[in-house]
Amino acid sequence: MNITLHGAAGDVTGSAYLVETGDSCVLVDFGMFQGSQVLERKNTIPDGLNPTRLDAVALTHAHLDHSGRLPLLVKHGYRGPIYATDATMDMADLILRDSARIQESDARRANRKLHEAGRDGSKRLVPLYDLDDVEQTLALMEDAPYQEPFSIAPGVSIRLVDSGHMLGSASIEMTVEEDGQRKVVVFSGDLGPRGAAWLRDAETFQYADLVFLESTYGDRDHRPLKETLDEGGAIVVDAVKRQGKILVPAFAIGRTQQLLYHLAAMFHEGVVEKFPVFVDSPMAIEATTIYAQHPELYDDEAIELAREGRLKMDLSTVKAARTVEQSKAINDVEGICMVIASSGMCNGGRILHHLRRNLSRPETSVIIVGYQSQGSLGRRLVDGAKEVYIFGDRIPVRASIHTLGGFSAHAGQSDLLRWFDVVAQSRPRVALTYGEDRGRNALTGIIRKRYRLDVQTPMQGDVIQL
Ligand SMILES: [Zn+2]
C-alpha cells in the first residue's frame, strides 16, 4: 500500500492522507491550508488525487484544517461516503457553512476592489467553493460509531476512538488486507490534552505497523491547567472589584465552551458572586447547543454535573446574544459582566466593537486565552500597546490586559508520549505530522532514543510504502 501525504507534513494545516492499495483508494481528512497567502494557494486538488476514483473518505474531526477542502473534492466530482462521528457531522455543518460564507464574502470584496480600481478586465476571484458545494458535502456524510470497526472499501476497514481534542474528534485505526497480508495504520489525528473540560482523554491503540503521530507541541508541555485556573480566578476577582466589563476574545468552538465550564465551577465554589456572562457570537451559541446535544461524549465529571443539573444552575446568568441588536444592547449593561466573543485573535468579529468601546476605560479587563499571531490586534494588546486602531479610530489602551495560557486543545509533549507509549510496544514505524520543525525534531529525538524506532518526518507530496 502507498500512503501519500497531501498536507500537514511540515506544515500544521491541510491534513490529508491518500491511502492506495491494488483494490482501493481512500482518503483520511482533506483539510484546508491556513495561515498565509502562500499556504492558502495550496488549497487545490493535488496531482495524483482523482476525486472520482476515490472509494471513501474518513474524517478525524471537524476543524477546518482537517475538513476544509472536502467541499472542493465534491465540487470536483466526489460522490462517495464521508465517514465521521455524529458530533463531527454536527460541527462540520457549522464550520463548513461558515467557511463557504467567508470565502464568498472575501471574493465579493476582492472583486469590488478590482472594480473600484477600474480593473474589471482582470481575473475575478472565484471562491474555493460555495454554500451549494457545502450542502452536497454534508449530504455525503455518514455517521460512524466510536469503537466498532467497519468496512469502507474493498480490503479496508476503520475503527474510530475518541482523541479528546474537540467534541466528536477521533483517532483512526485502519486495517488493510491485500494479497493475504494484513497491515494496521494508526492516524492519531489531533490529540487533546488530558483533563480538558467536557472531553474524555484520548484513547490509545495496542497495535500498529505504522503510526502517523501529530507533533504540534512535540517540543514542550503546556502550563498545568490548575495554575491557569487559579490565575484566571484571581483576575476575575480583581475585575469584579473594579466593576468594569471583562472582555474575552475566544474561538467560538471549543474555547468558549471550555471557558463556560470553568466559569461554572468558579461560581459554584463561590470564588465570585454570579454575574452576567454574554456569549456574543451566533457560531459560539450554536456550538454550545451541539455540546448540549451530546452528553454521551462528556467525561465522567461533566456527565455528573449535567445529570445533577448543576451546570444549568451555575450558568443561569449566561445570556446568548444572537442578533446585532442583542450584541449592541450589551453596551448599556452597567457594572460587572463578561463578554465572550470571537474572533479569538481580535482580527474580526464582534469582539472588535466591544474593544473599541471599552479599551479606553481603566475599569475594563481583557483576558487573552489563546494564541495571538504576529500582526493581530490581540498580539499588539498582549505586547502592551498604549494605543491601537480599530475601524480607523485611535483608541488609547487604559484597560488591564491579561494573558492566560494553558487552555490548549492539543496534547503537550508529555501527553503525546504517554499516548504513544502504548502502541510503541508493538514496534511500529512512525511518521510525525502536523508539526513545524521544532516540534517534530524534538519528538523524533525522544522516540528514537527511548524506543529505538524508525521515525520519519515526511514532507508534502511524500509517499510512504508499507
Ligand atoms: Zn483540530
Layout of strands and helices, then pairs:
Blueprint: E1 2-5, E2 17-20, E3 25-28, H1 37-40, E4 56-58, H2 64-67, H3 70-75, E5 82-84, H4 86-116, H5 131-139, E6 141-143, E7 150-153, E8 156-162, E9 170-178, E10 181-187, E11 210-214, H6 225-242, E12 245-249, H7 255-268, E13 277-279, H8 282-293, H9 300-308, H10 310-314, E14 318-320, H11 324-329, E15 337-341, H12 351-358, E16 365-368, H13 377-382, E17 387-390, E18 393-396, E19 400-403, H14 413-424, E20 429-433, H15 437-451, E21 455-456, E22 463-465
Parallel strand pairs: 3-4, 4-5, 5-6, 10-11, 11-20, 12-15, 12-16, 13-14, 13-15, 16-19, 20-21
Antiparallel strand pairs: 1-2, 1-22, 2-3, 7-8, 8-9, 9-10, 17-18
Helix pairs in contact: 4-5, 4-8
Bound molecules: zinc ion.
The site of zinc ion has 5 residues, from loops.
Short key terms for the protein model shown above:
binds zinc ion; Metallo-beta-lactamase, Chain A; alpha/beta; 7-stranded mixed β-sheet; Rossmann fold; 2 domains; 466 residues
Record the strand order, biggest sheet.
Answer: 6-5-4-3-2-1-22
CATH superfamily of the largest domain: Ribonuclease Z/Hydroxyacylglutathione hydrolase-like
- Gap from first CA to last CA: 5 Å
Instruction: Pick out the low-confidence regions.
Output: none
The CATH class of the largest domain is Alpha Beta
Number of beta strands: 22
Helicity range of the residues?
A: 25-40%
Structural class: alpha/beta
% residues in beta strands: 15-25%
